[in-house]
Structure prediction request, 90 residues.
Amino acid sequence: MHKQTRIQRTEMSNLDTLVQTLIREGHWSDAAGLYRDELGVSLTQAEAKVHALAQELGITDPHRWTQWLAIGLAGASLFVLAGCLQWFVS
Prediction:
């Protein structure tokens, strides 16, 4: 029984080490998928675990700034499109 617990701790330690490596390399979705598959939790729970681990490591989400950039570009595109439509109509 004690040996089995030690093996499970080693496996969990190896899983955490692999997930930390994936997070550091920017593969957050792969890390969440690995947690989901290995721990049998939902994707939302796995993503929350990855974000919590990244915060412990002091790493911010690499895609956060690109999401804001995409939102800004989409907004600017809509603004330009509305201006062009108004110019063509008048």
In short: The longest helix spans residues 64-89. The chain has a mean pLDDT of 82. Residues 62-90 form one domain.
